C-alpha cells in the first residue's frame, strides 16, 4: 500500500474563494471550476509541476484534468516554459503578422492533412463559432446539426438542447439564447445515423453543416460507434452539407492527428484548441482551401481577433506540438499504457466493491461513469449516479487525487504521470471503494 498524503486543510483557499466571490459570479471565471457538480470547496491552485498541482495551502494533488486537456506534456514542461520566456522578451503582442504563426501552422497542417488552410483564434468557442459561419456562407444554408452531449463552446447557436422530436428544431440551452437562433440548430442523439438521415429528410437542402466531437468528451468520454464517423461523412457529402470535426479536445490527444487520424476519416472543416496552444489561449479553425478562402480579406466572410496568432501563444504551441511530433513514437504508447493501467486499476477496485461503474476510454482521455452501462450516448450517460460520482470525487481529492469535477467531463493524463501516480491513484480508489462496500 502506498503512503497516502494526510487529508489536506485549505484555509487559504477558503479565504481566496471568499475574495473571488466579490469579483466573479460563483468566484470563478468558468462555471465547472466552482465544483457545483461534485460539492466541496475548490482548492485554489498556486503552481503546478509535472503531474502535480500545488494549492494555496501547499497541498499536492495528482492532476487528472490538465487544464481540461492542454497540459499533455505535464505542467511547466521546460521546453514550453523556455519558449514562452524567450518570446515574452520580445514583447507580448504586436497585432501584426509574425513568422511564428506560419511556423505553428506548418506543424498543424502536417498533423491534420484535412486542414489545408487555417486561421488562429483565441479559444475553442471562437473556432467553432467561426467554422459555422463559414459553413453557412459556403453552402448558403442556415440549419446546423449538433449532437446531445457534445459541447462546442458557448456561442449562442451551440447552446441548444434537443427539441421534442428528432427532426424538430432546437430549444435554447441557456437563458439569453433567443429561440429564433436555437431554431436554426437541430440537436440529435450521438451514435445514431438514422437520426441524421431523418433530419436531412425533414430539411432537404437546408442543413449547412453537421458538427460533432469525433470522440465525445463533454458528456464524459463516449467513443464513436464503428462506422459512425464514416457514415456521417457519407451522408454530409451526399447531401451537400459540411462535416465539422470539433477536435478542440481530441486534437493531438487521442493521436497526433486527433480522431481524424485515429479513425481514418476526413472532414471539411476542423477546429482545434487546448493542446495546440500548450496551455496558452489558442483556437484553430481550418479545412479545405476552397472554404477557407471565403474568409476576409479574400472573401465575404468576416472574422477577426485582436490576439489571434499571439506570439507567446504561438511559441507555446510550437514547443508543445513540436515535441509531440518529434517524440510521437514514445509519447502516445506511453500515454496509452499509463491511462490503461490507472483506469483499469480504479475500475477493478469498484468492481471488487460491487459498485456499478462503466469505464469509457480513448487513449489518455476517459470517464468512469457511475452506472452499469453501456454508455454510448448522452441519454445513457445521464443515467449515471452523479451523487455517487460526487462522493468519489471528494474522497479522491481528500487523498490528493484531483479528478475533473463533473461526471460529464473527461479525465486526462500527461507524459509526466508515471508509476507512482498510478499506484497512489489506485490506492486512493481502493481506500474509497472498500469503505463504501
Ligand atoms: P473554449 O472556448 O473553452 O476554449 O473551448 C470550447 C470547446 C469547444 N469544443 C470542445 C470539444 C470543448 O471541449 C471545448 C471546451 N471544453 C471545456 C471542458 N469540457 C472547457 C472547460 C471549461 O468550460 O471551463
Q: N-to-C SSE series?
A: HEEEHHEHEEEHEHEHEHEEHHEEHHEEH
Helix/strand/pairing class, anyone?
alpha/beta
Helical amount: 25-40%
Proportion of beta-strand residues:
5-15%
CATH class category of the largest domain = Alpha Beta
- Overall CATH architecture of the largest domain: 3-Layer(aba) Sandwich
CATH fold group of the largest domain: Aspartate Aminotransferase, domain 2
CATH homology superfamily of the largest domain: Type I PLP-dependent aspartate aminotransferase-like (Major domain)
Round the Cα radius of gyration to an integer and report it.
Answer: 21 Å
Summed up, the helix count is 13
pLDDT below 50 for ≥5 consecutive residues: which ranges?
none
What is the straight-line distance between the termini? 19 Å
The shape is globular
Give a quick rundown of the structure.
This protein is of the alpha/beta class and 437 residues long.
Structural account:
There is one protein chain. Helices cover 38% and strands 15% of the residues. The protein is built from 13 helices and 16 strands. It starts with 10 loop residues before the first helix and ends with a helix. A seven-stranded mixed β-sheet has the order 4-12-11-10-9-5-8, sandwiched between helices. The chain has two domains: 11-64 and 330-436, Aspartate Aminotransferase, domain 1; 78-326, Type I PLP-dependent aspartate aminotransferase-like (Major domain) (Aspartate Aminotransferase, domain 2), CATH 3.40.640. It is globular. The site of ligand KE4 has 18 residues, from helix 4.
Amino acid at each position: 500500500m502506498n503512503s497516502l498524503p494526510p487529508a489536506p486543510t485549505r484555509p487559504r483557499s477558503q479565504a481566496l474563494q471568499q475574495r473571488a466571490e466579490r469579483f466573479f459570479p460563483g468566484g470563478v471565471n468558468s462555471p465547472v471550476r466552482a465544483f457545483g457538480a461534485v460539492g466541496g470547496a475548490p482548492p485554489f491552485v498556486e503552481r503546478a509541476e509535472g503531474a502535480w498541482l500545488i494549492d494555496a495551502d501547499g497541498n499536492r494533488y495528482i492532476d487528472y484534468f490538465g487544464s481540461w486537456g492542454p497540459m499533455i506534456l505535464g505542467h511547466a514542461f521546460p521546453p514550453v516554459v523556455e519558449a514562452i520566456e524567450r518570446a515574452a522578451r520580445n514583447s507580448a503582442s504586436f497585432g501584426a503578422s509574425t513568422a511564428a504563426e506560419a511556423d505553428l501552422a506548418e506543424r498543424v497542417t502536417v498533423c491534420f492533412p484535412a486542414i489545408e488552410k487555417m486561421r488562429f483564434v483565441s479559444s475553442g468557442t471562437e473556432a467553432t463559432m467561426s467554422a459555422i459561419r463559414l459553413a453557412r456562407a459556403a453552402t448558403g444554408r442556415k440549419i446546423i446539426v449538433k449532437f446531445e452531449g457534445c459541447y462546442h463552446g458557448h456561442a449562442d447557436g451551440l447552446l441548444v438542447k434537443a427539441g421534442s422530436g428528432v427532426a424538430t428544431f432546437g430549444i435554447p440551452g441557456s437563458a439569453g439564447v433567443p429561440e429564433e437562433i436555437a431554431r436554426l440548430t437541430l440537436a440529435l442523439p450521438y451514435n445514431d445515423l438514422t437520426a441524421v438521415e431523418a433530419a436531412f429528410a425533414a430539411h432537404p437542402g437546408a442543413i449547412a453543416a453537421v458538427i460533432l466531437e469525433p470522440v465525445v468528451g463533454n458528456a464524459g468520454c463516449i467513443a464513436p460507434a464503428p462506422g459512425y464517423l464514416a457514415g456521417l461523412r457519407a451522408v454530409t457529402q451526399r447531401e451537400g452539407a459540411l462535416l465539422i470535426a470539433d477536435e478542440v479536445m481530441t486534437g493531438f490527444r487521442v493521436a497526433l492527428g486527433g480522431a481524424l487520424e485515429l479513425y481514418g476519416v476526413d472532414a471539411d472543416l476542423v477546429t482545434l484548441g487546448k493542446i495546440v496552444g500548450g496551455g496558452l489561449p489558442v483556437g484553430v479553425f481550418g479545412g479545405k482551401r476552397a472554404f477557407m478562402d471565403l474568409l476576409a480579406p479574400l472573401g465575404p466572410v468576416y472574422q477577426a481577433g485582436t490576439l489571434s496568432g499571439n506570439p507567446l501563444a504561438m511559441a507555446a504551441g510550437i514547443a508543445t506540438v513540436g515535441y509531440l511530433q518529434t517524440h510521437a513514437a514514445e509519447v502516445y504508447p506511453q500515454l496509452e499504457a499509463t491511462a490503461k493501467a490507472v483506469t483499469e486499476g480504479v475500475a477493478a477496485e469498484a468492481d471488487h466493491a460491487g459498485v456499478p461503474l462503466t469505464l469509457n476510454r480513448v487513449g489518455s482521455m476517459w470517464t468512469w461513469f457511475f452506472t452499469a452501462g453501456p454508455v454510448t450516448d448522452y441519454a445513457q450517460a445521464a443515467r449515471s449516479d452523479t451523487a455517487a460520482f460526487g462522493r468519489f470525487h471528494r474522497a479522491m481529492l481528500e487523498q490528493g487525487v484531483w479528478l475533473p469535477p463533473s461526471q460529464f467531463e473527461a479525465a486526462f493524463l500527461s507524459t509526466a504521470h508515471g508509476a507512482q501516480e498510478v499506484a497512489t491513484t489506485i490506492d486512493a480508489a481502493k481506500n474509497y471503494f472498500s469503505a463504501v462496500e
